[in-house]
Design a protein that fits this description.
With 338 residues, the chain is an alpha/beta fold. It has 12 helices and 13 strands. The chain has helices at residues 10-30, 54-64, 80-86, 106-115, 125-142, 158-165, 180-192, 196-205, 214-217, 220-234, 253-261, 318-337, and strands at residues 2-6, 35-41, 44-47, 74-76, 91-94, 119-122, 146-147, 171-177, 244-245, 264-272, 277-285, 296-303, 308-314. Strands 4-3-2-1-5-6-7 form a 7-stranded mixed β-sheet, sandwiched between helices. It has a 6-stranded mixed β-sheet with strand order 9-11-10-8-12-13. The longest helix has 21 residues, at 10-30. It is globular. Bound molecules: L-homoserine. L-homoserine (HSE) is lined by residues 154, 179-181, 208-210, 216, 221, 315-316.
Length: 338
């Protein structure tokens, strides 16, 4: 399979490392021989239709800062749009940073890739909260596969769980702890009464907070994820602006401690139901599947046949995100072979 990586920051590099690590398994267990024919970042691109040497690509990007510094095949200034349209590939990974207002540049990348007949895998929440129905339609019209497991829950395979393992069920509601940063902050505050700003700094140092951490704190990141889940699993036609959002900036350590004394935990919960789309802090009984600590994510699906199913795991980080990205790649391969 010929792959193009658009975005070669933390996630793109994490995926490259995972492809090196999993090369043998992908071949022997799934019959996939992944060949990265291009990697593009904001400075330019490296393109080799016979396949880039991923170790060399990683070395160059880490030392010099860009995939475009790849020897001989790297070119400064070559754009993602140019690569997507002109480099022959089976799958385009869109891994550029999220822009929740315009969805760009990810939105244009996804559209161009689909129109060029490439299957698409993305971790980018921006295009999904701005134009999910449009992208879904375009993928169908273009006859390409479109996967976005990595955009919600990191390693937590909630979309695959609902679509594959719970096939035949109707998902009636989704509730979840969808943001690791706020969950970490709330957990630490309740345990030690540590002030908000101190714990936020810790979360930033752990590398899980958004570049602009108000997106975490004010519940916007969780709102993006609940929008995506509502569209993907409840067949809603939702945009980010439809979500009623309250963040955690006004939660004081006393509140989290008091909650604990009464056998509860304060959690930032996203809810998607037929007529509800919201993110807000809520009391969750300790021991409930959503009362997870630290940076964990947890999601409960309410379905007609299986009733409630809950799933927990790590929602951020390059390896965790790669777990979802590689899973989507294998899934596309299986779908095409079916
Ligand atoms: N800032 C996000 C979080 C990263 O804390 O969960 C994953 O989307």
């Amino acid at each position: 399979m010929k792959l193009v990586l658009v975005g070669f920051g933390n996630l793109g590099r994490g995926l490259a490392r995972t492809l090196i690590l999993k090369r043998r398994t992908l071949r022997s267990s799934y019959g996939i021989n992944p060949r990265v024919v291009a990697a593009v970042d904001e400075y330019g691109a490296a393109v080799d239709e016979r396949g880039l040497d991923l170790r060399k690509l990683l070395q160059v990007a880490e030392k010099k800062g860009s995939a475009a510094d790849y020897p001989r095949k790297g070119k400064k200034g070559r754009s993602a749009a140019d690569v997507i349209e002109n480099v022959e590939a089976d799958v385009v990974f869109e891994l550029t940073p999220t822009n929740i207002r315009t969805g760009e540049p990810g939105l244009t990348h996804l559209q161009k890739a689909m129109r060029a007949g490439r299957h698409v895998i993305t971790s980018n929440k921006g295009p999904l909260v701005v134009a999910f129905p449009e992208l879904d339609r375009l993928a169908r019209r273009s006859g390409v596969e479109f996967r976005y497991s990595a955009s919600v829950g990191g390693a937590v395979p909630v979309i695959g769980l609902a679509r594959k393992l719970l096939a035949g069920n109707e998902v009636r509601a989704v509730r979840g702890v969808l943001n690791g940063t706020t969950n970490y902050i709330l957990s630490r505050m309740s345990k030690e009464g540590t002030p908000f700003d101190v714990v936020l700094r810790e979360a930033q140092e752990m590398g899980i907070a958004e570049k602009d951490p108000t997106l975490d704190i004010e519940g916007i990141d969780a709102a993006c994820k609940i929008t995506i889940l509502a569209n993907a699993l409840l067949d809603r036609n939702a945009k980010l602006k439809d979500v009623d959002v309250t963040g955690i900036s006004r939660i004081k350590p006393e509140v989290t401690r008091l909650a604990q004394e009464t056998g509860n935990a304060v959690k930032l919960i996203g809810v998607a139901e037929r007529d509800i789309l919201e993110v807000a802090p809520k009391l969750v009984p300790i021991g409930h599947p959503l009362a997870v600590g630290g940076t964990l994510n947890a999601i409960t699906l309410e379905t007609d046949l299986a009733r409630e199913i809950s799933i927990t795991g790590f929602g951020a980080g390059p390896w965790e995100t790669s777990s979802a990205l590689v899973g989507d790649l294998i899934d596309i391969h299986r779908t095409l072979g079916a």
